[in-house]
Write a structure and sequence with these properties.
Rossmann fold, 2 domains, two-stranded antiparallel ribbon, 11 helices
């Protein structure tokens, strides 16, 4: 069969549109570029060339996956975050732009301290996007990261190596603070940072297909009120924070008051800072001992 690349990509775009994919044209192009490993210029150079049958079949296998709702990032295996390319797969949550607010705030705190060998703990690290980005953007920092999912830890380790910070970031498989209990006393850090699951359990079935059917529920489900893991983290954070330590948390747009109340109930912190995202929504809470 002799068919041009441009015709095949347009067919893929039509298939994605019929399946309700909002960015059908962009996704059809990006999937093709991913398959052939070409940039935008390389793609246009192929626009009027004939596609071979094997490439045709492989391309439409990927297009069909996208048509069923599989996130584009899981198909291409990557996502941009803080200017860096992270490997992603169904074991990990796809890093969001909102989480860049959290990283930027922590980086600002670290750089303002001008402290050598600032220690950071990234709880529930997933792909490692938060901790690895901090390690890339701050010179005098040592990052530890944990996740209960072995697949996530393996993904994060690969990302750290690819981004050349594997000497600055260490990973431990375990539930939240569990790997840092210590044999004789808890391991402590200057900063603890986390983007925990915070979606209410009953809300998850209402989310987009890409999220509810493909991203790991372990990284989404925050319990009946969405606050279960804030309680877990806040209740033990001071045990693992050094003097003048800081806890930085991403929150849902409507959770600032509730999370602040949890901190007040436990009486662990003296002050807090609320940071909004680019849309003006509450996004990050920073607690100070």
């Amino acid at each position: 069969m002799s068919i041009l690349v441009k015709d095949v990509v347009q067919m893929a775009e039509a298939q994605l549109e019929r399946s309700g994919i909002s960015d059908a044209k962009i996704d059809a192009e990006l999937i093709f570029r991913h398959l052939l490993g070409v940039d935008k210029m390389g793609f246009f150079k192929l626009w009027a060339t004939v596609i071979d049958d094997i490439t045709w079949e492989r391309y439409f296998d990927l297009v069909t996956k996208r048509a069923t709702g599989m996130p584009l990032q899981y198909i291409t295996g990557e996502q941009e975050f803080m200017g860096f390319t992270f490997g992603v797969n169904p074991e990990v949550l796809i890093p969001r732009q909102d989480t860049e607010i959290l990283v930027s705030e922590v980086v600002q705190v670290i750089n303002s301290k001008k402290k050598k060998n600032c220690s950071v703990l990234d709880l529930g690290c997933g792909s490692g996007a938060i901790g690895i980005s901090i390690a890339k953007l701050c010179e005098n920092v040592k990052v530890s990261a944990s996740d209960i999912n072995k697949g996530a830890i393996e993904t994060a380790k690969r990302n750290a190596k690819i981004l050349n910070v594997d000497k600055k970031v260490s990973f431990a498989e375990g539930n939240w603070f569990e790997p840092f209990h210590g044999r004789f006393r808890p391991e402590t850090f200057d900063i603890i940072v986390s983007n925990p699951p915070y979606i209410k359990s009953h809300v998850i079935p209402t989310l987009q297909t890409e999220v509810k059917d493909h991203e790991p529920h372990l990284a989404l489900d925050g319990g009946s009120d969405g606050l279960a893991y804030y309680r877990k983290i806040i209740s033990r954070a001071n045990i693992h924070l050094k003097k003048e330590g800081i806890l930085a948390l991403e929150i849902g747009y409507d959770q600032a008051i509730a999370v602040a109340q949890i901190a007040e109930d436990y009486g662990k912190f003296n002050n807090l800072k609320l940071v909004k995202d680019l849309a003006g929504n509450d996004r990050v809470l920073i607690f100070y001992i």
